[in-house]
Amino acid sequence: MSIQIIEADAPVPAEARGATVALGNFDGVHLGHAAVVRTAHAARPGAPLAVLTFEPHPREYFRPDDPPFRLTLLAEKAAALGELQVGFLFVLRFDHAFSQQPAEDFVHAVLHERLGASHLVCGADFAFGHRRGGDVGFLATRAEALGIGLSIAPALADASGPISSSRIRRLLQDGYPERANALLGRAWTIRGIVAHGDKRGRTIGFPTANIALGRHLEPARGVYAVTVRLADGSRHHGVANIGLRPTVSDAVESRLEVNLFDFAGDLYDQELAVSLQSFIRGEQKFPSFDALRQQILRDAAVARQLLAGHPL
């Protein structure tokens, strides 16, 4: 299903008014978030289904010097929500003015007047407004006064505890993409534009597409078996490295390098979506470029084995 992104102060289309609106950051759009969306649809099945989120993430705004932590940037978030049949994604600009907005104004001016929401859904810990002055109790009281319904979605948990974005981040940073993917309900994906690299891979018949991690979380450094979606919608198996490339570089910023198996074509300036499927090994420094080349070939063979029969 296609999803319409309505950013900042853009007009809200008539067909989006009266929607059931799920509230939150939805970073990762994991199984817990999917449960919130299902709660929203079940509350009023005939109403348009929408999500309201914030850009940048409030943590990015208040702690700009923190390392990047995002699981999903806006495009990937929208795509994941679209798969959950969400029709509209309202994106509020989180800036100084918004951070100072009283909780009452958020409910009345944003949810009621601007969006025309008919029903709201959030988790029990949702907080909003200046200094997080509004909680679920406040939201319930104000929504009722405005004739807006409210449902509280229960937290989703498994044997290890609540399913959360922070838990998924830890799994990725510890090198367990399969476990993270199980909690996401799909493979974790980095979207980015292919840039020119140093072209070393070409010298061994192993060209790579180079993508900056940008605001994405940096997962465990090392080599992964991946699936890749190109801008034209085609999908491919491949092997990727995330890290500093200590054998050939003195870089201080990690990047993603991916080789698509059995592919010939120009990928420069294209947007790729690279999904981590399995962790093969950690990053290491080799005594020579030839030793690195031999290891790359072994890594590719392992990746092919891991992805054999894997759906694209």
What is the number of E strands? 14
The arrangement of helices and strands along the chain is EEHEHHEHHEHEEEHHEEEEEEH
What is the share of helical residues?
25-40%
Q: What name is given to the CATH topology of the largest domain?
A: Rossmann fold
Order of strands across the widest beta sheet? 1-4-3-2-5-6
Classified by CATH, the class of the largest domain is Alpha Beta
Number of helices: 9
β-strand amount: 25-35%
Radius of gyration: 22 Å
Which consecutive residue ranges, at least 5 long each, have pLDDT under 50?
A: none
Overall SS class: alpha/beta
Number of domains in the coordinates?
2
Principal-axis shape equals elongated
CATH superfamily grouping of the largest domain: HUPs
Biggest pleated sheet: 6 strands, parallel
Instruction: For the record, give the distance between the C-alpha atoms at the N and C termini, rounded to a whole number.
Output: 19 Å
CATH architecture of the largest domain: 3-Layer(aba) Sandwich
What is the overall pLDDT average?
93
